[in-house]
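Duplicate of #3305? Posting structure anyway:
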């Protein structure tokens, strides 16, 4: 669709999370800030961590008399193909964000714009990189804080067994862990992204394996649960036991700034907002296909103490209105050659 000037259009986002869940709240706030600046009518429907409800919500949207111009979907709990198929049958252009289809799913669904004509493409962070980055930073920090040659006993707390964000982060972390000669994986558990579950697992595991001195967590909520478990075990989080996390919540940034978190990666909360930029360009005749249909930009980055402080200053209370989203658009900036969606770009 080619237009001489920007025109409003509508996007419905099916969020897999709870409405008050820290990560998804932050992601939606960023999306709303982008939508307001790009004149996009954004609707957010929350599935409350129920993959069946995600599919039902898509089905409900496809049956409306007035359908949105685009659907923005997440392959949480591997529900992506079912939602993409429903959107395709209804003739609603759709875009996949945050979690990619797995190789097995792609064999069935095909690539974007092939079998599913209305599946425009995807924008997903490199979750394996996030896992690798945080594990490396955790190991590096241990080499500085513990006496030379200290054996490192690692507890890994993954999200779930199927969502690509979880499986890929674990894969990246395990590959990095395998390069450390004095580090061993003591246990891998699945905290289902939840603080309470991770805390309960941590209390039991720290009793069973008192030698654990490193904890890698696939998100911040599980890291916070592990902090409580460490405290209840009589140890000191950030001192006798070092932790890593992934996410950008206020508490995560504060704890990284204060060194309670030895390692942190963030940036992927912006994936939905960046996806809206791509849809904005597509809607105005600047097809992102020139850079690929399955985009995996370097969205994640490890966060230093100084960067954590900077983030807290810039984006207090999840306020992202200060980001000038039009500067990332090729339609708004014809001279722009490539999309730049990195975390450090936000801080600059």
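Output from current build:
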């Amino acid at each position: 669709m080619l237009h001489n000037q920007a025109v409003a259009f509508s996007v419905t986002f099916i969020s897999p999370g709870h409405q008050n869940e820290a990560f998804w709240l932050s992601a939606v706030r960023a999306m709303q800030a982008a939508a307001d600046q790009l004149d996009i009518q954004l609707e957010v429907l929350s599935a409350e961590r129920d993959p069946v409800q995600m599919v039902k919500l898509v089905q409900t949207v496809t049956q409306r008399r007035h359908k949105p111009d685009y659907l923005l979907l997440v392959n949480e709990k591997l529900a992506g193909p079912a939602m993409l198929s429903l959107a395709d049958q209804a003739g609603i252009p759709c875009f996949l964000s945050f979690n990619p289809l797995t190789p097995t799913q792609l064999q069935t669904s095909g690539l974007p714009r092939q079998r599913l004509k209305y599946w425009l493409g995807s924008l997903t962070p490199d979750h394996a990189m996030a896992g690798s980055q945080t594990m490396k930073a955790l190991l590096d920090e241990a080499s500085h804080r513990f006496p030379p040659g200290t054996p490192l006993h690692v507890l890994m707390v993954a999200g779930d067994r199927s969502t690509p964000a979880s499986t890929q982060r674990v894969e990246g972390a395990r590959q990095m862990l395998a390069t450390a000669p004095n580090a061993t994986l003591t246990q891998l558990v699945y905290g289902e992204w939840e603080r309470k579950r991770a805390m309960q697992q941590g209390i039991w595991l720290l009793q069973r394996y008192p030698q654990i001195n490193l904890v890698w967590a696939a998100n911040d909520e599980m890291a916070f649960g592990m902090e409580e478990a460490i405290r209840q075990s009589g140890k000191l989080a950030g001192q006798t036991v070092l932790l890593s996390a992934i996410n950008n919540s206020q508490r995560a940034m504060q704890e990284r700034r204060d060194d309670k978190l030895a390692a942190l990666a963030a940036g992927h909360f912006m994936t939905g907002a960046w996806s809206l930029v791509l849809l904005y360009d597509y809607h105005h005749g600047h097809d992102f296909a020139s850079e690929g249909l399955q985009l995996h930009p370097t969205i994640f980055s490890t966060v230093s103490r100084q960067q954590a402080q900077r983030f807290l200053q810039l984006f207090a209370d999840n306020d992202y209105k200060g980001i000038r989203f039009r500067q990332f658009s090729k339609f708004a900036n014809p001279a722009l050659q490539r999309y730049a969606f990195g975390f450090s770009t936000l801080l600059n």
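Confirmed duplicate; merging threads. The first strand starts at residue 9 and ends at 15. The first helix runs from residue 22 to 38.
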